Each structure stands twice: as structure tokens, then as C-alpha cells.
Amino acid sequence: MSVSAPFLVLDENKKMMLLPLTLLHKEAPDPVDTSSWTQVPSVSTKSKFPLQKWVHVGCEVSRNFMRLFIDGNIEGEQFVTSLLTKNTNPECPRKISLFSVGGDGYSVQGFIQCAQVLPASDHVEHHYMKDPPLLLSVNKSSSSGIKLDDDGVWQASCREIFSLDVVLSNAIGQPVHKDVEVVASLLYADTLVEARMSEAEAPLLVRDEGVEFSSGDRPIKLLNGRSSFKLKISQLSSKSDNRLFWIKFGIRNAKDYPFLQAVSNPIRCISISPDVRPLSVTPKRLTNIDHLSSTESPDLLQNTSSVKRIRLGKESVSGSEESYQQCNSRPQTSRQFENGNGMRLHEEDNSSTDSENSEMRYTISDSTIFRYCLGNIIDKSLLLKEITNNSSDDEVLEFANQVSLYSGCSHHSYQINMARELIAEGTNAWILISRNNQHVLWDNVVYEIEEHFMRISKCSSRSLTHQDFELLRRISGCYEYVTQVNFEKMWCWLFPVAYSISRGLINGMWRSSSPKWIEGFITKEEAEHSLQGQEPGTFILRFPISRIWPHPDAGSLVVTYVGHDFALHHKQLKIDNICESSERYMDAKPLQDMLLAEPELSRLGRIIRSH
């Protein structure tokens, strides 16, 4: 058979169609007239066919019916009329067009693996799990040292270390253990040409065991299906400043297949002058004006005279929320008055105290404060470990106040003040868990994690669930075995959350079981999925998994809700002094009541899990 209509078609709406077979079904379309392909009886997917990912497609075709299976699930069935009689011996065609291969308007560019013709006795859906193909991807939720711009582009500073994990998995999401190496390269986003900074230095550097190498000379070995990269972009020329880049990852010595390659989000690299001199005097304090963007709701964001209102922070950028963003909380010079609810009102004090501050000298130098303010998450973490080991509690407290003053973000003080306890608790926990072993089974870690969490959160009445532990495992980046690096990464997320639950107004909400105001540890994607199709005002509370200590918002609560425009919104709760002791809030109005008093929040949603 030299001419035939295609067997499978992607229509203009990106839905896959299974068409009747030429010479077998009376309803088969005209091979030449492409318009007939959409007019004949067919089986079509209910939603758009996913692109740039592996999809298992199964077709069951007989004389009288057709069935289409996607990823092991039946999408639909269509009865057709056979051209063959009972006594007819069908002549099987020698060639059938699997996909349309016509002009540019009809062509499909893709890859097919393990195409098989099965006997009628086999069940198509049973082949979904057999020998799934491989896919290399960037685990964006594990990134650190990268900020997210308002346009959804990642921002990294030249000569600053940032971390990315690359995962090799199969089509059904299981990690694949292969003895291969992954190599990284830097590309211009507009031309896809490998970047060139200067002849003296490679454009992209990899740090391995404390030593920096050109990324092309230092591939990272895949371990348990994951390669962890510590990367640094070289100093840019003025022509490349603010230009967009991609970091491309590929398996070394593998064929140039797109599914064995992965790229990061577009990255805007910002040059930082290396000639910055340390501060010798206290800088002028930042202006106490916090402007609202045009996209923010005045009712939710502005300070109001009502002390019964909470503040929701700036809405998260759409797309990947799981990235580090700057905090917009400004410290203020003020006289504070408390009302009966324990919430604070501020009276502005315009008198300058810079002259007084400039005369003060602290053991921790101005240059150290400056380094902390400009450093990324990894830099801040290492610096805090050094400071807590060599400074008194009073010095750490003063350091926290100075960082909050200079950076313009009061939330930094929460993370700095909890540093000593976080490090000590984490060190003791790992000693108990590991018992001097470098690798520990995850199942053996779970009990100790829960015990420490319940003690720190001051809530022994609520245990962690299986879903909570699975999210903690995801944050740690481990699989069957846990290393100290995995544990510390998980601990730097879990401790601030437990600390927040133990303090202020959140503890009562965490204890509540009916209704369950906080349903445990959930992702942004789970919250969005659960709110699909819900009424405006429905909301879910969650701890964002990207806010890892010492990010200024580590341990914070985010409310995900359906707006009056039926769109999903994500805003961070900003409650004054929420990290102070719960005794200050004995007479306060419950946090849930303050939430429901917000005009855009009316009822609590429920988490719907896909598994």
C-alpha cells in the first residue's frame, strides 16, 4: 500500500486522534484530502496532548472498534464498520503512516521508542510500565543562590556560587541509576550559541571539592539518579551585562537527543564590581517608604487602623514560585504602642539617629554585615555558622539588628536569632540519627525527625503524615539513603517551620483538627490543583518549600486563594511580631478569624491529592 491516511494525528488543538484504518474500516479518511481526517469518526484525547515529555500511546484496533490509551488509561472508544466479511482473509498493508508527515502545517517532530505490534490476546494498558524511556531534567525546586525576577527570569550574580540539581528519571518519574556523567555549558538564550566571556577564563565554572574547574572539563557523576552542580558564571563584559543565558546540561558521550539534555530557566546575569570597599562607618538607614505595585490589592497590603486585620504580602510571581525572592518588609524608627490584642501600632519618629549609630562600635565588623547583606543563601548560611561559633548571644542579637537596618528587611533578624539553636539542634539530631554512619536509611530517619519536630513546634498532639515525610524527602534530595548534606538541607527548611508553629498565632491553627486550617506540608502545585474550579474566596495555607534558612521568609505562611477574577493568587502572610512568644497573644483574636475578615478570603479549601 503506497498511500494511506495517517493512523494517529495531532489536530490544531493539540489533541491526539486515532483514525479508522484504510482497507479495514469503511469510515477511513481520504489519504489525499486532509480535511476529511477531522470529519470521520475517531477517538480523541480529552485534553491537549502534552509536548516535550514522554507519553505512552496505546491503540487497540479491531474490525468493529478502536480504543485509544494514554499512559495506560483509556481515553475513548469508537465503533466502526468493517470492510471485511467473515470469510475474507485480510491482506495486511505493508506500510501504515503512524503520524502525518505532510507539509510544515501537518508535520510532527518527535521520537518514538519501542513501537510494538501486539497480539490480540495482550492488553495494551499492561505495557505502560515496561521499559519506559529516559528523560533528563532540571530539578528547579532544589535550586539555591538564584533569585526570581518579576518577568519570571532567574537572576544570578557573576562570580557568585549557585546550586542546581539535574535528575535522570524514566517516563513515569522514577529515578534511574546509571553510571554516567553530566556536563554543563552556558548558552546565549537568543542564539543558543555557547557563551564566550574571555580567552583567559571559561564562561561557566563548576566547584567540586572546593576547587573550581571549567564546566566542560569537570562533569558531575550521576548518583542515585541525580547530579548536584555548584556553578559560577564568570565576570561578564559590559556587552553581556543583563543578557539572557541558559545553562544546558547533557549526558557526556551520549547522542544528541533532546530528551537526554536539559536547560535551566533563562538566567539574567548581573555583574558585581569586585572593588567594593568594606564599610568603615554605619551607612545611612534606608527610607521607610514601602510602595505598592499596581498589581497589589490595597485592602490586603496596606496597613490599616484596624488591629484585627492581618497583612498579606506581595503576590508571588507566576510560574516558579520555588525560588528565593527579596523580602519587602522595611524596618521603621518608631514608638510602639500595644493594643489589647497584642498587635502593635507604629507612630513614626522622624528624628535622625544616624549620628548616634555612627559612634557605636560592635565586635562583628561592618564588612561582615556588608558581606551578609550582599551574599546569597549559601554565603549567609556559612557566615552565620562562623558567627555563632565565635560570638556571644548579645553580639549575634546586635548583628541581627544591624543586618535588618542596612538591608531594609526586618525578617532577617528572625533567621539570624534562631541560627544558634537551629545549628545546635540539627547537629545533635544528625549525631543521634547517623551514629557515625555516612549514609542512613530514610526509614530509620523518619522517627527521629518527627520526634524533634514535635518537640520544637511544641505540639505533641499532631504527628507528621506520610505525605509530610515524602515532601521532606523531596526537599532533602535523597532517595533510599540520607547523607549529612541531605539532612542539613531538609533541616534548614523544617526547623524554621517548626519554630514558627511554636510561636505566636500559628500554634493554635496547627493544633486544630476540625477544621484542619493547615493540612501539613504541601507544595504550590498541590494547592493550585486543589483550588481548581473552586469558588472565589476559597483559600489554602501552606509553608512554601523554597524558603530555606537563612532566607528571610523561612518558616513563613503563604495563602493560596481563588480571587474574584477566578485566578489563583499566592500571597505571604505578614503579621507583626508573629515570631514572638505566644504569651503575647493570649488575648489576641485567633488568626483564622483575622483571615476570614479579609475581603478576598471567605472559606477554607481542602487538599486534593492526585495519588
TrEMBL record:
GO terms for molecular function: DNA-binding transcription factor activity. Residues 517-611 form the SH2 domain. InterPro entries: SH2, SH2_dom_sf, STAT. Residues 315-359 are annotated as: Disordered. The keyword Metal-binding does not apply. One of its GO terms (biological process) is signal transduction. Residues 317-339 have a biased composition (Polar residues). The keyword Ubl conjugation does not apply. Keywords: SH2 domain. It comes from the Eukaryota. PANTHER family: SIGNAL TRANSDUCER AND ACTIVATOR OF TRANSCRIPTION. This is SH2 domain-containing protein.
